[in-house]
Amino acid sequence: MDSKKYIGMDVHKESISIAVMNGTGKIGMECVMETKASMILQFIDGLRGDVHVTFEEGTSAAWLYDLLKPHVTKLVVCDPRKNASMLGKIGEPGVRRRAEFYYQQLDALRTVRQEVRRELLAEAKKHQAWKRLCQIPSIGPIRAAVLLGILQTPHRFRTKRQLWSYSGVGIETHSSADHRSVDGRLQRMKKQSSIRGLNRNCNHDLKNLFKGAAIVASSKPGPFQEFYTTLLTKGIRPEMARLTLARKIATIVLIVWKRGACFDAQHLKPQTA
């Protein structure tokens, strides 16, 4: 199994947009976090396997390079201004032409991304639930808008566990040989089911959203970070603590949206976990 992770970072003064791709070319995670050393390192340390990182040269490039170099397998800083010279080094005409098309597509997508972002927020602001969802730490305007688009209504989920399963953060269990013969009759045995991991039949965009929100929330001061830290002090592994936090965020989204209530730190009490 390929354990390599390829990370692309779009670095800005206040925030960093991150995408994580596995060895098969599938995007496994996307998130946005503050440009702070502690948050960045916590995110990198939470990834398993060989980590390859790349980002564009800019005002923060030297600082970020020195920060990440000891923690990753390979680190590449690229300079978009040298794209033309790099293309000139490609000898095969067909390969060079395809590379030129890819660069043109990338430039076009950057413009489209900004336009789509504005239209997404404009449409989301028409819904009353959007403002309430934005109040939840680590959700923010974009994630709140995406939640509205994917879920449309919270009343499709009768319980929080139904939302967990739909979001890909529910536990999948398996049992076998559950019955035995007693006095000629089959009776169900009391035995513990084996855990097979998270359910795979889910909405992967929603799973990515809650996982990204949990990563940001665990590294940003606030009630969610306190909740995450408490889990770590109990001996829970970081990856399991982030999963529990992702479930907590999903639960709070359901509470706030269904009840039309404002976010309250009291939602972090164990009975809502």
Elements, N to C (H/E): EEEHEHEHHHHHEEEEHHH
Seen as an oligomer or otherwise, the chain set is: single chain
Over all CA atoms, what is the radius of gyration? 22 Å
Number of strands: 9
Q: Class by helix and strand content?
A: alpha/beta
Uncertain segments: none
Number of helices: 10
Folded structure, characterized:
With 273 residues, the chain is α/β, with parallel strands linked by helices. Helices cover 48% and strands 19% of the residues. It is built from ten helices and nine strands. The chain has helices at 37-45, 61-68, 83-88, 93-124, 128-134, 140-151, 160-167, 204-219, 223-233, 238-259, and strands at residues 5-11, 15-22, 27-34, 51-56, 74-78, 171-174, 179-182, 185-188, 194-198. A five-stranded mixed sheet has the order 3-2-1-4-5. Strands 6-9 form a two-stranded antiparallel sheet. A two-stranded antiparallel ribbon has the order 7-8. A hairpin with a 2-residue loop joins strand 7 (179-182) and strand 8 (185-188). The longest helix has 32 residues, at 93-124. It is globular, with a radius of gyration of 22 Å. The two termini are 33 Å apart. The model has no long low-confidence stretch (mean pLDDT 82).
